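=== RUN LOG ===
request id: a7f3
mode: sequence -> structure
chains: 1
length: 204
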Amino acid sequence: MKTDIVYRLGEGVYLNITNKCPCRCAFCIRSQGEAVGDAERLWFDTEPTLDEIKSAIDAFDFSGVEEVVFCGYGEPTNAYDNLLSTAKYMRETHPDIKIRLNTNGLSDLINEKPTARELCSVLDSISVSLNDTTSEKYDKITRNIYPGIAFDAMLDFTKECVKYCNDVRMTVVDVIPKEDIEASRTICESCGAKFRVRSFAKGQ
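=== RESULT ===
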């Protein structure tokens, strides 16, 4: 069975470029099945090459599409070079379509270097998963491979993105308590980003 690289979910069009991720979030939608939206399968047997990603973009009908989102069954910045190259290819082939990155915000840890400025140079907007309100809670819910440092790294990454991108948002999923959602809003505002509560039921 083929693995979908470009797929639709609701009104959105998404780019699934990797299955690698440093987190195993307790609420992660990829633990619920093989795919979401109109995709048949989002799990790769082998990570896609840049040529395969470009071919999938070329084969997709983007008529009427206003935005594409890097978001699939993995953390897009785990495929950092392909992410940058794919964003540039979208700019070349579909210049009127805006490009968004949905990320866990751990790119600097994953890639062992500052990445916000370079990412912002090829993207129109960035959505960072805040997930919870303290480092301890964040580690518990995301089960990331950088315990103790991931939360602060995510906040620092977001603050850097705000410097270079006009549309940066932070999100939480509506599975955490209401008081934590409001505390998350305060954290988001302190980073200079917009705030959004995502629906677990809708997967977006």
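=== NOTES ===
The mean pLDDT is 94.
The CA atoms of residues 86 and 92 lie 10 Å apart.
=== END ===
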